[in-house]
Design brief:
- With 269 residues, the chain is of the alpha/beta class.
- The protein contains ten helices and nine strands.
- It has a five-stranded parallel beta sheet with strand order 6-7-8-3-9, sandwiched between helices.
- Helix 6 links the parallel strand 7 and strand 8.
- Helix 3 crosses helix 4, helix 4 crosses helix 5 and helix 5 runs parallel beside helix 6.
- The protein starts with a strand and ends in a 13-residue tail after the last helix.
- The structure holds adenosine-5'-triphosphate and magnesium ion.
- The site of magnesium ion has 3 residues, from helix 1.
């Protein structure tokens, strides 16, 4: 379980996260949709400890992170960073190392896995993302989609409780996007807990068939109505997010057609 309670995050005077409440259960896929600069990346970075926050709590399994800076938080963060992986738009593979080494590096050096165990696991993961044939090449000889699939294998190698994806396909061409989305859909179907910021509605649509929480920005609700807001769709926000789709295959109408219990609201702005 990942549970965020009343998370507030400010950059100087600019309040980016205004009391975010979010629960992602085991095996659940949470898709964060929202317009630019509403704080989606900030939220992901806050969850895995790359950013501090000003108030509220984040619970990841048994670990509780509070806003208070100090040795306790640092101890908790070290665990969180190991058990919550993050996949960015840019893949950040290590150029001098071959694909296999990119995947084995952290398990060997951080998890202290024996080299042969890490190599066997990495080969399995590369096979899972369709990249085993490229295990001996350097990242620069791969397409963007292939590099992103290696980056996903690298994250999986840490055996994460959850993976946070921040627009993993937004730097990719349509074919590479399809390859990466296929890998992500397989992970979702296998029960991998994920929080995904994406504009790739084809992924969102596929995961609807699995189990998803859809989040969209909206005003912080009045506390008396919070329960209601946390369990029902926000038609106005969603409609604003998909303004006037002309040849829309997927959009607000599809979201609205989902069973109500599959929606949850992301309270920012
Ligand atoms: N390190 C920082 N210092 C100051 N302000 C920041 C910092 N990081 C983000 N912001 C501000 O926080 C707001 C939210 O940014 P964020 O990147 O989280 O939005 P986003 O929803 O991910 O946007 P996009 O959809 O464009 O990726 C923006 O106004 C941004 O300028
Ligand atoms: Mg972003």
């Amino acid at each position: 379980m990942i549970e965020l309670t009343s998370i507030v995050k400010r950059y100087q005077q600019h309040e980016v996260l205004r009391g975010v409440n979010l629960k992602v259960a085991d095996g659940e896929v949470c898709v964060l949709l929202g317009p630019s600069v509403d704080g989606k990346s900030t939220l992901l970075r806050t969850i895995n400890g790359l950013e501090t926050f000003d108030s509220g709590t984040i619970r990841i399994g048994d670990i509780m992170l509070s806003a208070t800076v100090g040795p306790e938080r640092e101890k908790a963060l070290a665990i969180v960073r190991q058990c919550v992986g993050i996949v960015f738009q840019q893949f950040n593979l290590f150029p001098p190392r071959i694909v296999l080494q990119n995947v084995t590096e952290a398990p060997i050096h951080v998890l202290k896995q024996p080299r042969d165990v890490a190599i066997a696991a990495a080969r399995n993961l590369l096979d899972r993302v369709g990249m085993l044939a490229k295990q001996d090449v350097r990242p620069r000889s791969l397409s963007g989609g292939q590099q992103q699939r290696v980056a996903i294998a690298r994250t999986l190698a840490m055996n994460p409780e959850a993976i946070l994806f921040d627009e993993p396909t937004s730097a990719l061409d349509p074919r590479s996007t399809a390859e990466v989305i296929s890998v992500m859909t397989d992970l979702a179907a296998a029960g991998q807990r994920m929080i995904v910021v994406t504009h790739a509605m084809s992924f969102a649509k596929k995961t609807w068939l699995i189990r998803s929480t859809f989040c969209t920005p909206g005003p912080l609700p009045n506390p008396a109505r919070r329960h209601r807001y946390s369990t029902i769709p926000r038609p106005k926000s969603l409609a604003a997010f998909f303004p006037k789709p002309r040849r829309r295959k997927v959009g607000f109408a599809d979201l609205a057609a989902l069973p109500v219990h599959k929606h949850r609201c992301f309270n920012t702005l």
